[in-house]
Amino acid sequence: MGKKNKKKKSHLPFRLNVLFFIIFLMFSGVVLKLGMVQILHGAEAQEEIDRTTNDTTKTPVPRGKMYDRYGNVIVDNTPLYAITYTPPKSTNQAKHLEIAKKLAPMIEKDTKKVTLRDKKDYWILVNNEDNKAIKERLSEEEQTYTEEEQETDADTPYEILLDRIDPEQDLQFSDEEMEIIAIKRELDSAYSLSPHIVKNEGVTLEEYATVAENLDKLPGINVSTDWQREYPYGDTFRNYLGSVSMSGVPKDEKEYFMSLGYSLNDRVGTSGLEERYEMVLKGQKEKIKHTVNSDQEVINSEVVQEGTRGKDLKLTVDMELQKRLDEIVQKHLEKAITRYPYQNQHMSEAMVVMIDPDTGEVLAVSGQKYNRGGDGEEPYFQDFSLGAITQQYAPGSAVKGATVLAGYNSGVISYGEFINDNISIKFKDSPEKESYKDLGTINDIQALEKSSNVYMYNIAIRIAGHRNYVRNETMNYTPGSFQVMRDYYSQFGLGVKTGLDMPAETESAGLQGKDFQPGNIMDLAIGQYDTYTTMQLAQYVSTIANDGYRIQPRLVSEVHEPDVQAEGIGPVVESYSPNVLNKISMTQNDIDRVKWGFESVFQSGGTAYSNFGEEVDYSVAGKTGTAEAKVYDIIRDDYGNAIGVGDSTDVEHLTLVGYSPAEDPEVAFAVVVPNTGVIDGSPQYPINKHIGRDAMDAYYDLKENRAEAMEEKEQSNKESEDDSADQ
Q: Which positions fall inside the Penicillin-binding protein transpeptidase domain (predicted)?
């Protein structure tokens, strides 16, 4: 019988048992620690997990509207389909690229704004997935860049890589890729929790619907309605209405707008009245509170303050008069240029301002530029209305009313004083100066009526300190006389900004000559030295019309609350009263005498009588002006660069200032037409007078039509009331 196998007993080494025991103790400690954390700090840990933060953003609202003086809408808002992106608090370019790739097939995106840097950033992102191309351009040490570094350090490998990307080799993208880059560019421009416009121009209903159906695949993307400015009168008066930015606040004004509570992607007025009245037009933004969890995800949003669109502006401008004035200026510019193409080869612009002298309210401002075309292109007109406040010209005899008033006030001439205009003025070592023809012995009124230069020269040389003129002697000249004359002119607004309610940098103060030779003060007295804008000339003649009170010109008369219940204009919030800038130092008798002279210019055989005189059924007073000037040919190289000045051509600046009715003015005007040609020493087409006449005809025609319409309306209302009473 064999022996039974004995069951072997398993023996583990002692040291292994000790090791297991230690591990057991360690796990027991961990379990004990977790238990203590759960018991003692569990609530705090759970609170940290559940922690949320609240952030408030502001959503822009439509801007206020603009109306003309008769309540016609001239700037409105048109609703648009819009595709927006509201980024979370934490995002990056890679996420934006992912969204852009999904969104690109759903919409068409303009690629004109894509920059070289946009293309390079896209190339780097795409090649990060397979960074062979990147490694070929960077050493091992240079390949350690991070996305955070690229935002803060210009010397990082990221910036080095940007410089080593070859546009010709690396950046030749398809149209589809360019759209992706353009969309990504918009996403990169967005600020956290603030809606940013990805596309709002030309969004089709199909695009809108497609994006709306796929919002779950496009984090942060949304569809909404946006707005853009609408102009019922087209381009009429657009230069003064101004523009609104479409892509956030201007970079050079970022700090200013941020200090006022703006977001970087807010649209703001960038020119004209849009800029000047930004704080009125911008409205009150809608405030939205976003609840964000610890993963920086928005888990809830609620409106905490409803937005209201901006307040409305009521302008002083009469848009019907404005339209007619533009047509008048175009008509006479074309006539003057096409009838005398050679003589008027340098003529291209004309400007007109019409204003209420009592209130300073600007009724119309026209400026037109005639482009001759060429190379098969037809001639066309371009709006040049801003030239009325930005371009300055020598006004010629139009300023003689101020010169005569300066003579009265300084005591160098008296009422009715006669001066012989047949005698020219000639000082030693200076050119001979005379009127355009011999006018005989004339007094102050006749000097204005006939536009005597010699009379004005005598006023100037007397103010300069030379009392008794003797031919060919040296002129006595008191230092500071130029400033004395200019101080007189500035009382009327000549040589200083008018105060028009446009952005301050828009308006010019004119230019002053720097050569204080004694003879030049005589040129100053006849408007042949310093230069002024058309708006300054309108303010000057308005000051005389308004018995010496210089009024600040205005384009906006009232601010109104938006009327959300109806389409009309809402209640008045603020009304701007006439602002008297100064009262001239001359007496009422002085002013009345110059007014007499101004009436003679238009009504008693003066220099404007041929275009007004007995032909009109309204009275006008004012002054014509002709200033001699030169236009120089520009010498250019083969590349079109200006390299010198060539021959000169004699031209004239034609002006006309006036007001009507002469006895109780309700409208004042100024016309400036620079660089008109000369035929045998005389203007070949008095375009300034033609424009002035047609402008005044248009004013009174509209006034009569409106009076008749009002009378018919009142009669109709009366008949309706009578019918109601009979019933």
A: 351-691
Per-residue b or e along 47-64, where b marks 16 or more CB atoms closer than 10 Å to that residue's CB: eeeeeeeeeebbbbbbbb
CA 387 vs. chain centroid, Å, equals 13
How many Å apart are CA 133 and CA 720, to the nearest integer?
85
Neighbours of 639 (CB within 10 A): 6
Residue 176: in which H helix or E strand, if any? helix 175-189
Contacts of residue 553, defined as CB under 8 A and 6 or more positions apart, other chains included, come to 355, 360, 361, 362, 498, 499, 500, 501, 535, 538, 539
Q: How far apart are CA 109 and CA 182, in angstroms?
A: 7
Model pLDDT for residues 113-138, shown as the tens digit of each residue: 999 999 998 988 888 766 677 777 77
Helices marked H in 604-686: none
Q: Over the stretch 642-657, which tens digit does the pLDDT of each residue have?
A: 888 888 888 999 999 9
Spatial separation of the C-alpha atoms in residues 509 and 531, rounded to whole Å: 9
Catalytic residue list contains 600: no
d(C-alpha 578, C-alpha 599), whole Å: 26
Residues 6+ apart with CB under 8 A from 508: 389, 390, 391, 392, 497, 533
pLDDT value, residue 302: 65
Nearest residue to 307 (alpha-carbon basis) of 88, 65, 64, 79: 64
Q: Which amino acid is at 115?
A: T
Rg of the chain, C-alpha, whole Å: 38
Contact status, residue 264 vs residue 191, Cβ threshold 8 Å? yes
Q: Give the phi and the psi of residue 377 in degrees, each rounded to 5.
A: -85, 135
| Beta strands 73-85; 66-67: pairing state | antiparallel
Residue 454 pLDDT: 96
**Residue pair 625/395 in contact by the 8 Å Cβ criterion:** yes
Give the model's pLDDT for residue 50: 53
Cβ 579 vs Cβ 499: under 8 Å: yes
Position of tokens 């004995």? 6
The 10 Å CB-count burial string (b at 16+, else e) for 486-501 is bebbbbbbbbbbbbbb
d(CA 244, CA 266): 10
Residue 55 confidence class, pLDDT cut points 50, 70, 90: low
Catalytic residue selected from 263, 397, 435, 660: 397
pLDDT for 173: 93
Distances (CA, A) of 398 to 402, 494, 607, 657: 9, 11, 11, 6
* Whole-number pLDDT of residue 34: 66
**Predicted confidence (pLDDT) per residue in 461-512, tens digit:** 999 988 788 888 888 888 889 999 999 999 999 999 999 999 989 999 999 9
The span from the CA of 475 to the CA of 471, in Å, is 10
Cα angle 14, 15, 17 (rounded to 5 degrees) comes to: 70
Tokens encoding 437:
């023809």
* Whether the bond into 661 is cis, omega within 30 of 0: yes
Among 58-62, 87-91, 343-347, the range of highest mean pLDDT: 343-347
